[in-house]
Amino acid sequence: MNWITNYVRPRINSMLGRRDVPENLWIKCPETGEMVFHKDLEENKWVIPASGYHMKMPAKARLKDLFDGGIYEPLAQPKVAQDPLKFRDSKKYTDRLKDSRAKTEQEDTILAGLGKVDGLKLVAVVHEFNFMGGSLGIAAGEAIVKAFERAIAEKCPLVMFPASGGARMQEGILSLMQLPRTTVAVNMLKEAGLPYIVVLTNPTTGGVTASYAMLGDIHMAEPGAEICFAGKRVIEQTIREKLPEGFQTSEYLLEHGMVDMVVKRHDIPSTLARTLRILMKKPANQTANAVQPIAAAG
Amino acid sequence: MHNYLDFEKPISDLEGKIHELKKLAQEDQSIDTSEEISRLEARARDAMREIYAQLNAWQKTQVARHPQRPHFVDYANALFDDFTPLAGDRRFGEDAAIQAGLARFRGQSVAVIGQEKGHDTKSRILHNFGSARPEGYRKAIRVMEMADRFGLPVVTLVDTAGAYPGVGAEERGQAEAIARSTEMCLNIRVPIVSVVLGEGGSGGAIAIATGNRVYMLEHAIYSVISPEGAASILWRDSTRAKEAATNMRITAEDLKALGVIDGIIKEPVGGAHRDPEQVITATGDVIAKALGDLSSLSGDAVRAERRQKFLSIGRNL
Lengths: 298, 317
Fold this sequence. Notes:
Chain B: It catalyses: N(6)-carboxybiotinyl-L-lysyl-[protein] + acetyl-CoA = N(6)-biotinyl-L-lysyl-[protein] + malonyl-CoA. Chain B: Keywords: ATP-binding, Cytoplasm, Fatty acid biosynthesis, Fatty acid metabolism, Ligase, Lipid biosynthesis, Lipid metabolism, Nucleotide-binding, Transferase. The complex is a heterodimer of chains A (about 300) and B (about 325). Chain A is an alpha/beta fold. Chain A contains 10 helices and 9 strands. Chain A has helices at about 5-15, 40-45, 60-65, 95-105, 140-155, 170-175, 180-190, 230-240, 250-255, 270-280, and strands at about 25-30, 35, 70-75, 110-115, 120-125, 160, 195-200, 220, 260. In chain A, the strands form 2 sheets. Chain A has a 7-stranded mixed beta sheet, sandwiched between helices. A two-stranded antiparallel ribbon of chain A has the order 1-2. In chain A, strand 4 (about 110-115) and strand 5 (about 120-125) form a beta hairpin. In chain A, helix 5 (about 140-155) runs parallel beside helix 7 (about 180-190). By secondary structure, chain B is an alpha/beta fold. Chain B has 2 domains: about 5-55; about 60-310, 2-enoyl-CoA Hydratase, Chain A, domain 1. Chain B is about 50% helix and about 15% strand. In chain B, helix 1 (about 10-25) runs antiparallel to helix 2, helix 6 (about 135-150) runs parallel beside helix 8 (about 175-185) and helix 8 runs parallel beside helix 9 (about 200-210).
């Protein structure tokens, strides 16, 4: 399935009643153990209704949920070299790619779209975590660069939703090179005077945090997301002691000054739109989704 | 005393014999060992040439980490005049894992930034084995910003296993510090020339290695994750580091072939530690040539060139 058919397919699929998951699937809340019927979970944007736990949200669902009326133009996946290192560990990298493509119906981890949020035009870039842990390789790096270029051409902001274990090791040094490459893209947008907002989702770690995920004008984070450079296991092995409670969660990062706000998934589109309208000196959207003002703290 | 690596056994055997013969000749003047010694020395040289001509990725990793390998401080002392180290990030503290300062390089004012690993227990602890915390990267950012304002080219000497994975480093924004340092490298309007001296360890390296020209010493390695780290993640078995080193393509030759670096600086036979002076001079010559080539570019052009260089990586594979 390519990216153009992808544009219309989801609707046809839903009309035909095709489901990605079995009808009887129940999902367990990782926090409380409560069982939730998948349809109820999907309807609640993958947030467990009772506990408020934010499950990982599929990239496609994220774009559909974000944009007004679920309408957006998907950006094409640029063509890049596949498996330049001819890499294999316990499995061939090309086989891992094939498996992930079958599982996610995506070319690689990045999905990007151009559309409107609360009437405001923007480009959104989302990592699909189910595609090799959302890892950053040449394909993802190039898709991100192209998305930034598109935002510049459209004179609109870019919103990034990272969900990634970090660099894609199967691409070796070329995955590391995506750190400076994506950083160039971020800076081109900034120089064009356009806002760049990062919405950190669970998990955002490693090389992704050490580049575009930490370079936003504004950093929002979903509740309870794991956000870090080095993982807990690595740190424990290095310092050989217990880690502080809540270490490397969104709330912990808020306390340590690394994110601006922790925002519940249901409030993200409206918070983005409100913030971006102020940054871009556009009048508040008086119509539809009028947002409750946030009272100043203190 | 020389530290031999496991694959240097034939060399250590021969050099051991030479050492014994020399001692014997000293003790008993009547024995003439000179002919035997020169014969063994020739054999040792041949063995070394043969072994070092075909080092695999894991052997290079060992050479790159050799305790006697020349480090930042050796280069700083030999290549620069008036090297004036600067301390602190003006926000939290000083991090000696990253050394940064002002200097004269062959008559030209420059800023110098690099990781120092230390050469004995005391200095290794002082420099945290070359693994920097956010303060180190923020000091680098500070010095790059200043270099930009004063129009000083920046020379970076990279040698780190990686940024430090610790609680404090995470709390103070290790990822953000690395991202901002890479960003500063990309934004300044003065030339940056980077050389990976030993280990180029992932984000901790790229934060100061995003240069207009990037070189590696012949036996240096540069990688997205250490071979041990890759093995433990990919095979759940860190003893397969050798395999990971090979598969990940981390040698200077690999990176040149992939178009990630601009050139390779030859090391003396037996590695940089066998003749530090030679390799340091060679490194200086390469830096001088690169700075000369970049000197004709305007500030905007030098920045555009650097951005374009990184955007192009991987596009023609």
